[in-house]
Please model this.
Amino acid sequence: MSMDKIVVLTSFVNEMDAEVVVSELKAMGIDAMIRKDDCVGMRPMIAAERGVEVLVCERDFKQASEIISEDP
Model:
């Protein structure tokens, strides 16, 4: 990602759902990444409690929101 401001697009309870969204966004040309806190994999329940966030550049937020809202 460039030096643009990074914002939270959405969050999920599990990482797999977040990975699907990130893959879809990247396929549409939007940079996206995941942020989670699970103590480097040692405590996956922390991520389940706090959520797994999908991050995008602020300039891409509107387009990314439209893309994920089109999902069935």
About this structure: The chain has one domain: 6-69. The two ends are 28 Å apart (CA to CA). The chain has a mean pLDDT of 85. The domain at 6-69 is CATH 3.30.70 (Alpha-Beta Plaits).
